[in-house]
Amino acid sequence: MISGNDLVTLSRFIGAAIAIGAGAIGAGVAWGLAAGDTTEALRTRPSHQRDLLRTMFVGGALAESSAIYALVIACLLIFVVPSSGNKGEINGADIILVAKYLGAACAIGFGAIGAATRGTATGQAVLGVARQPFVQNTLLRTMIIGIAIAESTVIYALVVSILLIFVVK
Length: 169
What we know:
The chain is an all-alpha fold. 84% of the residues lie in helices and 0% in strands. It has helices spanning 4-44, 49-80, 92-113, 116-131, 136-166. The two termini are 26 Å apart.
């Protein structure tokens, strides 16, 4: 028979997998979109390689932050949060911990999937630099501001995850 402690421990590990698994999707898609558009831009403007790659790496790094937030929550679930300590039958308190930990994982995991949209912003900025290199600084600034604003939703998910893990009783 599975104890309450075993069930909570299992939910921590499954939660960590959900958090980083779903969280990595957004960053992976963002990098793929950005790299595809950068390749297209390099094909048409190889002489601007440095500017194009710089734009791609800045946008990609910003998109990657969502996966880092998911990694933080996954590590908290694996190494920091306690199990219930209940060696007996599963009780209501154990079920609440399971819901908290899986809820935190889903919040950050699904929140971080939105990072994929940052790949579109990055790709469009790269293509814009290829078409009009003289406005590169304006395009880079606009991309950074747009991605930073879009990042707020992932930060909301991170806050909710932390609240679920450490504050909600």
